[in-house]
Amino acid sequence: MKRVLVDTSVWSLALRKKDAAESEQRIIAQLSKLVLDLDLVMIGLVRQEILSGISDQKKFTILRERLSIFEDFPITTHDYEVAAQFFNECRNHGIQGSHIDFLICAVAANHDMSIFTLDQDFHNYQEYIKIRLEKIA
């Protein structure tokens, strides 16, 4: 079974774009296929990022309920330790990134997942750490 950890950047595009361009529609369709094929992986930090900044309580509640169908993948101590190693390795090569990004990388690497993201920083990380990025259709 293919497993794909979907980054906040993809969710944001899919959930907030009303009039998506053709290239954006393809990304949204790719996300929909992951959902339908049950290949999508959610982690709590991505859920938090998706829900953060929604000031309208009604919209927040609706989105929280829609996302509730996705169970959070459990993150282990080992995942956090590998995230720190990834952070250090990239920093040693002059590549900066967020702790959340490196935790996404660690979870994906440790559990044989690819990462579906629109964030170009992940391409920089990929030069120094072993992660697989999902190809954008």
Description:
This protein is of the alpha/beta class. The chain folds into two domains: 64 residues, no CATH class; 48 residues. The protein is 56% helix and 7% strand. It is built from seven helices and four strands; from the N terminus they run βααβααααβαβ. Strands 2-1-3-4 form a four-stranded parallel beta sheet. Strand 3, helix 7 and strand 4 form a beta-alpha-beta unit. Helix 1 packs across helix 2 and helix 5 crosses helix 6. The chain is globular. The mean pLDDT is 95.
Termini separation (Å)? 19 Å
Structural class: alpha/beta
Domain count: 2
Beta-strand content estimate: 5-15%
Helix content: 55-70%
Which of globular, elongated, flat, extended, rod-shaped describes the shape?
A: globular
Largest sheet: 4 strands, parallel
Q: How many strand elements?
A: 4
**Average pLDDT:** 95
Strand order of the largest sheet: 2-1-3-4
Parts with pLDDT < 50 across at least 5 consecutive residues = none
Q: How are helices and strands ordered from N to C?
A: EHHEHHHHEHE
Task: Please give the structural blueprint.
Blueprint: E1 4-6, H1 8-16, H2 22-36, E2 40-41, H3 44-51, H4 57-67, H5 77-92, H6 99-110, E3 114-116, H7 121-126, E4 132-133
Parallel strand pairs: 1-2, 1-3, 3-4
Helix pairs in contact: 1-2, 5-6
Features:
four-stranded parallel β-sheet; 4 strands; 56% helix; single chain; alpha/beta; 137 residues
